[in-house]
Design goal:
Number of strands: 8
Structural class: alpha/beta
Bound molecules: zinc ion
CATH architecture: 3-Layer(aba) Sandwich
Distance between the termini: 49 Å
Radius of gyration: 19 Å
Helix content: 25-40%
Strand content: 5-15%
Number of helices: 13
Largest sheet: 8 strands, mixed
CATH superfamily: Alkaline Phosphatase, subunit A
CATH topology: Alkaline Phosphatase, subunit A
Strand order of the largest sheet: 4-3-5-1-6-7-2-8
Number of domains: 1
CATH class: Alpha Beta
Order of helices and strands: HEHHEHHHEHEHEHHEHEEHH
Length: about 350
């Protein structure tokens, strides 16, 4: 370990020690995106059937009335929003990634015509460690966009380099992916760890987004609950990750009874947003964020023109930065979820 690295690590942990005294402290973020998770399906299954989703709900701050981007209900556009804290739209404020496949050559930046910073920039530039584990190969778009060639220079403190994602893993077996994810956390200290679980989306496309008892789709959610349980067990038994916050949301839902998700259908837009961890209060996430967010009605697809916005999956990026005590992502503006404790609530 060289001297600079050692000093930086000491400084980082001093800052974390101070932050750990505050209400917003997290030393580690585990950000999970469950592909195709229609939030109302979580109400169909019992707490016995979903012990781990239920634990997030019963111990953390949750809503089952979060939303995707109002115009896009596909994976890569919404995933880019989850990392960058921006809308999908193709204009100079947003990220502009509208296609749902990876062409294999271009990056988020070359597509937009400017650099699209993400949570990986902010965490890595602070000298902290990041990983991205995904169950779909097209997530290579993100690895390529923020790698040692295409990532931005680091002008924050010590130069941590252009490569913003320390490890990228694609594995089409979710069981194997989750196992590798937990092994990685055990063997390395990771501060922002992203995991993509594809199973509900796969079941939805193959068999339909069915909420009938015993459906393949509901079974895929139960399987996802089991993966979540493996991660919670790891956190319960690993002191180093004591101050970890899980942010769990989805890229999109799906049309009940159909095998697709479309932008004109509210079920495709309706997703959960869970925040769980030692410093997170057990509360409705909209109640905690009543000054900055408004809960939509069941079938509403609120546009960006509304003064108060719903909680969106794109809130994950800046919430992760906030909880780690890091600055907002450069160029981002979606930051609706700011509170995880009622004692910080002020009158609006
Ligand atoms: Zn899909």
């Amino acid at each position: 370990m060289d001297a600079n690295y050692f000093i930086r690590r000491i400084c980082v942990y001093c800052v974390f020690f101070l932050l750990s005294q505050s209400a917003f402290a997290a030393n580690h973020i585990i950000h999970i995106s469950v592909d195709g998770l229609y939030a109302d399906a979580l109400n169909i299954l019992s707490e016995t059937e979903l012990p781990n989703f239920s634990r997030l709900k019963n111990e953390g701050s949750t809503t089952l009335k979060a939303r995707t981007d109002p115009d896009w209900t596909t994976t890569l556009p919404n995933q880019t929003s989850q990392f960058s804290g921006r809308r999908v739209d193709d204009n100079e404020q947003e990220h502009g990634w509208e296609i749902n496949f990876d062409p294999g050559t271009i990056t988020l930046h070359s597509n937009a015509g400017r650099y699209i910073a993400g949570i990986f920039d902010v965490v890595h530039d602070a000298g902290l460690s990041t990983i991205l584990f995904a169950g779909k190969q097209k997530f290579a778009l993100f690895e390529r966009s923020w790698n040692a060639i295409n990532g931005a220079d680091d002008h924050i403190g010590i130069d941590d380099g252009k490569n913003k994602i320390d490890k990228f893993i694609f594995d089409q077996s979710t069981e194997s992916l989750v196992s590798k994810f937990i092994d990685d956390l055990e063997n390395q200290t990771r501060h922002y760890a992203f995991l993509h679980i594809k199973d509900p989306d796969t079941a939805g496309h193959n068999y339909g987004w069915s909420i009938l008892p015993g459906s393949e789709y509901l079974n895929a959610i139960k399987t996802t609950d089991n993966y979540l349980g493996q991660i919670l067990t790891f956190l319960d038994t690993n002191n180093e990750y004591d101050a970890t916050v899980i942010i769990l949301t989805s890229d999109h839902g799906g049309i009940v009874g159909r095998t697709k998700h479309t932008a004109n259908n509210y079920q495709s837009h309706t997703i959960p947003f869970y925040v769980w961890g030692k410093n997170v209060e057990n509360a409705d996430l909209y109640a905690l964020n009543k000054c900055t967010a408004i809960q939509p009605s069941a079938t509403e697809i609120p546009p960006y023109s509304s003064t108060l916005q719903p909680i969106r999956n794109s809130d994950a990026a800046n919430l992760a930065a906030l909880l780690l005590g890091l600055p907002q992502i450069p160029g981002s503006h979606i930051h609706t979820v700011k509170q995880i404790k009622s004692k910080n609530l002020k009158s609006c």
